[in-house]
Write a structure and sequence with these properties.
single chain, S-adenosylmethionine-dependent methyltransferase activity, 9 helices, SAM-dependent_MTases_sf, 228 residues, 7-stranded mixed beta sheet, transferase, Rossmann fold, Methyltranfer_dom, methyltransferase, alpha/beta
Length: 228
């Protein structure tokens, strides 16, 4: 089941489909201090909410990429002047050193082979370009392989191991400049889901998966890396 293509999660927390909405988007863009007209890529743009938000609040140019035709169709409908392409993150259909920044908001945990993704991100970034990551992570990593066995397509089944993540970034030509923990956003997300009448049953999260998530001590983080 692709939860992101259904209305269940959207109706509970909105089009952004991630903890914290655009709060960390603003935090990251403020940190990177992009210039007017700089080109950004939303890696796994989903419904196009971040593209729409940046169009409305910043003077940057932004493209989008996603593997879901359904989500791409919606993203294009609300961002008619932006290029949004159907593609995977390990095969980014842009030339070398095209972007000043790449944004991956709660999407890396949905991707296979993130080492290849990082190499592609490095390729399309200009020198000293920024790679912005927000995602779920696990403080206890010994349960990660068991979580991956669940069929539900959600970031919750594949929280990141931050030690491995930083190792992959370094090996792919990045320096980590900023790492922040925003675990309260996961708590708020659960509260929003419950408040809006969406249970874990609606989200197809069974008791075993809930127990593993509790044991893994899931958190949420912001990381910004720069291409060397």
């Amino acid at each position: 089941m692709n939860l992101y293509e259904s209305d269940t999660l959207k109706n509970a927390i909105g089009d952004a489909l991630r903890p914290g909405g655009f709060q960390l988007t603003d935090r990251a863009l403020d940190f990177c201090k992009f210039q007017s007209g700089d080109m950004l890529l939303d890696l796994g743009c989903g419904r196009g909410a971040t593209i729409n938000y940046i169009n409305s609040n910043y003077d940057y140019k932004i493209c989008g990429l996603d593997i879901s035709e359904k989500l791409i169709s919606y993203a294009r409908s609300i961002n008619k002047d932006n290029e949004i392409i159907l593609s995977s993150a390990d095969n980014i259909l842009y030339e070398n050193e095209f972007f000043h920044g790449v944004i991956a908001e709660c999407t890396l945990s949905l991707m296979e082979g993130i080492q290849e993704v990082f190499k592609e991100v490095n390729r399309v970034l200009k020198n000293n370009g920024y790679f912005i990551i927000t995602d779920v992570y696990a403080k206890k990593t010994e349960y990660l392989e068991e979580l991956k066995k669940f069929e539900l397509n959600t970031c919750l089944k594949n929280p990141l191991d931050l030690i491995i993540l930083k190792e992959f970034l370094s090996n792919s030509g990045f320096n980590v400049l900023l790492e922040e923990r925003h675990d309260n956003m996961i708590i708020q997300l659960v509260a929003d889901i419950i408040f809006n009448g969406c249970s874990t049953t609606n989200l197809c999260i069974d008791r075993k998966m809930k127990d593993l998530l509790i044991k893994s001590k899931i958190g949420y983080m912001l990381m910004i890396a720069q291409k060397r």
